[in-house]
Amino acid sequence: MEKSTILRPTDDTQTLYKYVLEGKETTVSLSIEDDCIFSNADGEIDCPLDMILRKNKIDAEDLKKWQIADISFIEISGNVENLLRKINCATVLNILRS
Description:
By secondary structure, the chain is α+β, with helices and mostly antiparallel strands. It has one domain (3-97). Helix content is 22%, strand content 41%. It contains 3 helices and 7 strands. The strands form 2 sheets. The protein has a 5-stranded mixed β-sheet with strand order 1-3-2-6-7. The chain has a two-stranded antiparallel ribbon with strand order 4-5. A hairpin with a 3-residue loop joins strand 2 (15-23) and strand 3.
C-alpha cells in the first residue's frame, strides 16, 4: 500500500516541509502546515512528529503494519529536498507508547 499526500505547488522562494515514513513496501509522505513548524531551543527547524501523525490519523499500529523503518524530516526549497533529520521508527514507537 502506498499512501501519499500531495504537496502544495511551490515557487522558488517558498519553503515547505514534510515527513516521509519509509517501510519495506510502503512510503508515506505527510505534508506539514506552516503553523506546525518552529525553531527549537537549538535554533533548528522542528515539527512535532506525534502531532503530524495524529492529524493524519496514523498511530503506532499503522507504523507496525506498514513496517516503517525510518522517518525523515525534509525541507523543500526551490524544488530541492534537503534531509533535516532521520529518525528510527523504534524510537518513535517508544515515544508513542509513553
